[in-house]
Amino acid sequence: IVFSMAVFKRCYKQWLWFMVLFMSFSVIYVDAVWPMPQMISSSMARYTLNPREFIFQYSSGSSAQPGCSLLDSAFERYYPLIFTDYRADKLSVCSGQAALRAETVWGALRGLESFSQLVYQDDFGEYFVNETEIEDFPRFQFRGILLDTSRHYLPLHAILKTLDAMSYNKFNVFHWHIVDDPSFPYQSSTFPDLSSKGAFHPLTHVYTQIDVKRVIAHARLRGIRVLAEFDSPGHTQSWGKGQPGLLTPCYKGTVPSGTFGPVNPANSSSYQFMTRLFKEVTSVFPDSYVHLGGDEVDFTCWKSNPDVRGFMLKMGFGTDYTKLESYYMEKLGLNKTAIVWQDVFDYHEKIPVDTVLHIWKGSPGQIQQELSSITLAGYRVILAAPWYINHIDYGQDWEKYYTIQPLNFTGTEQQKTLVIGGEVCMWGEYVDATNLSPRLWPRASAAGERLWSDEKMTSSVIDAFPRLVDFRCRLLRYRVMLI
Amino acid sequence: IVFSMAVFKRCYKQWLWFMVLFMSFSVIYVDAVWPMPQMISSSMARYTLNPREFIFQYSSGSSAQPGCSLLDSAFERYYPLIFTDYRADKLSVCSGQAALRAETVWGALRGLESFSQLVYQDDFGEYFVNETEIEDFPRFQFRGILLDTSRHYLPLHAILKTLDAMSYNKFNVFHWHIVDDPSFPYQSSTFPDLSSKGAFHPLTHVYTQIDVKRVIAHARLRGIRVLAEFDSPGHTQSWGKGQPGLLTPCYKGTVPSGTFGPVNPANSSSYQFMTRLFKEVTSVFPDSYVHLGGDEVDFTCWKSNPDVRGFMLKMGFGTDYTKLESYYMEKLGLNKTAIVWQDVFDYHEKIPVDTVLHIWKGSPGQIQQELSSITLAGYRVILAAPWYINHIDYGQDWEKYYTIQPLNFTGTEQQKTLVIGGEVCMWGEYVDATNLSPRLWPRASAAGERLWSDEKMTSSVIDAFPRLVDFRCRLLRYRVMLI
C-alpha cells in the first residue's frame, strides 16, 4: 500500500514520508474513504495489521523527523483510533509497509486520516487494510464550520470535540462566531468588563485567554485554522453592557428611548475602542484572517439619533446610511485580511481588494447571482448560505447539503477560482452542548465531501449513502457523537 | 411546609408520612413545579436547608417504615439530586420540618419529586425552600412514553436514563416497542433464534432476560410500569428470520416471490408459536397489560397467497381480509388486558370489552371522531397521535404538544372518563442513543404537564415558558440530557 499525497497549501515546501508496518494476508473487503479522495484505486488484496507490531515511522528521506510535534502527536492520536479495541492479544504473521508522501505536514495529517479509514476489522477482531493507492488534494482551500457561542454558551469540551470531528471530515477552518447580541463570552484582557458584564455568567460562561489558547492549539494539531469573528457594528447588544457609550442611544422623538442600536459611528471613541479591541484580538488569534461581520445593520436607531444625523450631514452622506456603515467598516482597517458578510458588498462602494465576502442568504437564484457579482468585482468569496445546518427537518436532509454545486453560476473560469470554499453554519438559537453533535454529524459530512472531493466523482446521492452510513459508524467509534 | 398528596392508584391502601428537617431563614424566591400540581400555594417565607442535617424520615404513624425498599432507595436517589453540589461545608442554623402524606408509595414518589423541585440555591450555594402547601394527583392515570428499540437499538443505559427523566416528569408508563420489522432484539428463552437471527447483532444488540429485569426493576423504583409490545401480525419481518414458516410467503402469480408478509393466519402452527411466545412474554413482563399491536396490516401478501385464500373460503370470510385480521387478533387471547392500536377497532367487530384502544393517526378532526367512536362503543382509549415526538421542526415546537386538549371531543362525561391517558411516541427511524435525549427533553415535558395537570390551570403557553425553561435547567443538572 502506498499513499502518495500532494496538497495545495504551501506552508512548508518539503516532502514528508512515513511508513506503517503490516502483514500480508488474504482477500475480501474494501472500505471507503470519506470525503472521497481525488483518486483512489484499491485491489482485493488484503493485508493483516498487527497492532503489536504496527508503528508509524518517518522515512529517512523525510524532511520531518521525530521531534516534529505536529506529526508525533498525530501518530499518538491515530494509533488508538485505528486499533479501537486492541487488547494486546494478536500475533504477527509477516510484515510489509505503507508510505505516505505529502508536501506539507497539513497534507500528511489528511493522509493519516484517510489511512485510518482504510483499516477495518473482521468478525474476529482482526485488522485489515486492502492494497490501495490514493492521490489526494482538496477541491476548495476553505472548508469551514461555524459555531455560535453567543446565543448559547458552548463548554470547551464541546468545541474541542467538534474540532476532532472536523479533522475526521477534513474541514480546516473553525469559524468561531464568539460574540453576538445575546452574550459576550470572550474574556478580553484589555476590556475585562465586556465578559464580566456581557457574558451569561462572568465566571462559568466565558472563554478565558487560556481557553482560547487551548482551542487554537487543539485545532492547529488537527490542521484547523481558527477564524475569530467579532461582528460589528450590528449584533453588538451584549458589548454595550461592559462598554457604556459604545452603542448608539435610540431616540423616541426628541428623547432617548432607553434602548440601544449598533455601535455609534459618530463617536471617535467608538473607533478608539474598536482599534484597541482588534489589536488584542488579532494578536490572540494568530490566523492571518479575521472576520469583521458587518451583517444585518438596522438603520432605524441611527436615523433616530440626532448626533448620528448631525454626523451624516457633516460627512456629506445625505440620507444614505449604507455610506455610514461603509465608513464605519473602512475605519476598522487592520493589518490582517478581513472576511465580512455579503451585506458589506451589497451596500458599499469601497472594499479593500483582498477582502473575502461571505455569502449567507438568498434563494438559490439569488445566491448564484451574488456569486457572479462578487467574483466579477474581483473579490474572493466563501459560500455559507446553502449550509445553515442548524435548520432541521424530519427525515434525511443530508442530500440537500450534498448536492450543492458551489461553482454553478455564470462567470469566467477566473471568476470560479475566486470561490475559495464553503462553510457549514451552526447558529445557536436552539443549539447547545446537549444537541450540537447529533445535529452536526453526519449532516455536515455531506458538505465536507462537497468541499473536498471532485464534484463529478461524488454526484450520486445513491452512491454516497452507504459510504456515509459507514462513515457515521466510524464517527461513533471515534466518540465524537455523544452516546 | 406540608405536602399532602392523594393519588388515584390503589396499589396500597395505606397512608405514608415522612419528614425533612430544615432551617428557617429569610425571604426572596419562589420556584415552580413541573408538571403543575393540582393545588399549590406558597409564601415568600423562605427556609434554609442544611445538607448536613437534612434527613428523610418516616413518621411514626406511617404505614411505610425503614425497610420499605422503594422509598428507602428513593430517599437515597433524591438526596444528591436535591443537594447537587453539596461538599459538606455548610453550617446549620435552626431546624423545622416538612411532611409528605400519600395514599400509596407511588404517590409518595411523586411528592418527593415535587419537593425536590421546590429546593433552590442562591448565588452563594445555600439551599432554600419556601413555605409551600401542595395537594396533588394526576389528571390521567396513563402517562406513557414509547421507545422503539427495533428500528435502532438503544443501549440499556439510554433506556435507564429515559426512565430517570420520565420520573422527573411524572410519567408512569414505559411503552417498550421492543421488536418490529427491522430487528428483534428481545432475547427469548423459548425461542432464542428470534434474536440470534433477527437482531441487528446476536450478542451486542439484544436485550437479555437480565437486561429486561433490570429495566423493569429500575422503572418500578421510579413508579413506572413497563408495557411490552410484541406487535403482530404485521411489523414482524424480523421475526421470520428466526422462526421459519411463521410469516406468509407472498406470491407473484402462481409462484412464491421469495418475500414474506404478515404472520400467516392460515397455519395453526402460527397460533401455537404466538401462544408459547406470549406465555413467556406475559411472565417476563409482570404488568397486567400487554400491547399486542395490530396496526398497519398490509393485506396484499395475504391476498396473493393461495393457502390464505383457501383459509378465507373455509372460514366464510369472503374477500373481507379485515375479518381475517380480526380472527387472528382474537386467537391471541391472553390472561392479561390487551392494548392494541386503533386499527383493530377500525376494522373489527368483536373486541373484548376490557381491551384498550391506542389512537395513533389522523388529522385533529379525525382524532376527535375516533375518540368519540371508541368511547361511545364503551372502550377505554389512550391518545398518542398528537405526540409523535420523533417528528421535528426548526424552532420551538413544544407549544403544539402543550396545547393538546385530550378531552375536546363530542361525548358524554361517561365517555370522557374512558380516556385513560396519553402517550409520547419516539419512533426510531432516525433516533438512536446519539440523539434520543435532546429530541425527547424537554419537548416531552410539555405532554407530561398536559397529562398530569389541570387543563385550566395550564392553558397558557406564555405562563408555561419560563417554568419550562427552569425545568429544563433542572433536567440538565439531573444529568438526563446528554452534555
Description of the structure:
2 copies of one chain form a homodimer. With 483 residues, chain A is an alpha/beta fold. The first copy, chain A, contains 17 helices and 17 strands. Chain A has helices at 69-82, 105-118, 156-168, 193-198, 209-221, 237-242, 268-284, 299-304, 306-315, 321-331, 343-347, 364-376, 398-402, 413-417, 436-440, 443-452, 461-477, and strands at 2-4, 16-27, 39-49, 56-58, 96-102, 120-121, 127-135, 142-148, 173-177, 225-232, 247-252, 255-263, 289-293, 337-341, 356-359, 380-383, 419-426. In chain A, the strands form 3 sheets. The first copy, chain A, has an 8-stranded parallel barrel with strand order 8-9-10-13-14-15-16-17, surrounded by 4 helices. Chain A has a 5-stranded mixed beta barrel with strand order 1-5-2-3-7. In chain A, strand 6 and strand 7 (127-135) form a beta hairpin. Chains A, B: Its EC number is 3.2.1.52.
Write out key terms for the chains shown.
homodimer, 483 residues, alpha/beta, eight-stranded parallel barrel, five-stranded mixed beta barrel, 17 helices, 17 strands, elongated, disordered N terminus
Quick description:
Two copies of one chain form a homodimer. By secondary structure, chain A is of the alpha/beta class.
Give the chain pair forming the largest contact, with residue counts: A-B, 20 and 20 residues
Q: Which class of secondary structure composition applies to the elements of chain A?
A: alpha/beta
Rounded Rg of chain A: 25 Å
Query: Which quaternary structure do these chains form?
Result: homodimer
Mean pLDDT of chain A equals: 89
Bin the strand percentage of chain A: 15-25%
Contiguous runs where pLDDT drops below 50 for at least 5 residues of chain A: 1-30, 91-95
The largest beta-sheet of chain A arranges its strands as 8-9-10-13-14-15-16-17
Number of strands of chain A: 17
Q: How many strands, what sense, and barrel or not for the largest sheet of chain A?
A: 8 strands, parallel, barrel
Cα distance, first to last residue of chain A?
34 Å
